[in-house]
Amino acid sequence: MDQQVYAIGVKGQKWGDAEKAQWLNVQSVKRSYQDEVLTKVNALKARFDVEQYGALSYDAERYPLFAVKSKNWDLTKPTILVTGGVHGYETSGVQGAIRFIETKAEQYAEQFNILVTPCISPWGYETINRWNPKAIDPNRSFYADSPAEESAALIKLLADLGVEIFAHIDLHETTDTDNSEFRPALAARDAVEHTNWNIPDGFYLVGDTINPQDAFQTAMIKSVEQVTHIAPADEDGKLIGVELSQFGVINYATKALGLCAGVTDAKYVTTTEVYPDSPLSDDENCILAQVAAITGGLDYLLSL
Known about the structure:
Number of strands: 10
Number of domains: 1
Pfam family, one: AstE_AspA_cat
Structural class: alpha/beta
Mean pLDDT: 96
Largest sheet: 8 strands, mixed
Order of helices and strands: HHEEEHHEHHEHEHEEEEH
Active site: 273 (proton donor/acceptor)
Strand order of the largest sheet: 1-2-4-3-5-10-6-9
Oligomer: single chain
CATH architecture: 3-Layer(aba) Sandwich
CATH topology: Aminopeptidase
Keywords: Hydrolase, Metal-binding, Zinc
Radius of gyration: 18 Å
Low-confidence stretches: none
Distance between the termini: 45 Å
Strand content: 15-25%
């Protein structure tokens, strides 16, 4: 796939404030955070502790940020963090996190403290965007003094809780709009050329290069295989240009890249990726795959 010319900016020149404002001006609300996320989260209050941990300054009333915690929080138990919607457009990350709470979380609450932030980027959810309104990618912004308030809010939540995270599962997906919109926009914003346009057809995991935890990743892949297909390697034996560490798994430098998966010092960390535009999948299948990844990982931890 050839480098695409994006409608905003001048090729070879990084965006300034004017280009970012032009980009923001063409964004629009396409779905409801209130209806599709907050209504479901509010319905959980009888069974879980639902706490607001912030609100986005773009519209604080419209975009409150919520965390869902298992009841009877016990500091002697390991704490599990599940994050969704770091990239707001990645629907199954958000809905998969909610579905896990609705259907499976209570089964693990005796052994673990469960903490879920189902939609870290609600503006991105509503406008179906990877970036926030400042054209910043929250999933490259999990570090001190983060320029993305979505990322900064999660960092503050975890600091305020003051608990050691035992495992962190960050839920993501890739859609065809990565090639039609998001990668071209990124190339234009940063004045760089992208050569890898590969979108794996199926589910895969991204572990931590420094701390890969292969058996943990294997358990999740085996669990997801019961629900949907695992992405095969490309003709170069890679996924998104990265060598496989095992079937369906690659590793990234999560902290160095500012990824959400690197926001804690958890021993067990992974990022999930599903592909809802696959002819072999659909939205519901992707949600179920996200849930299977979480439960597969937790079942493995219980076996240790």
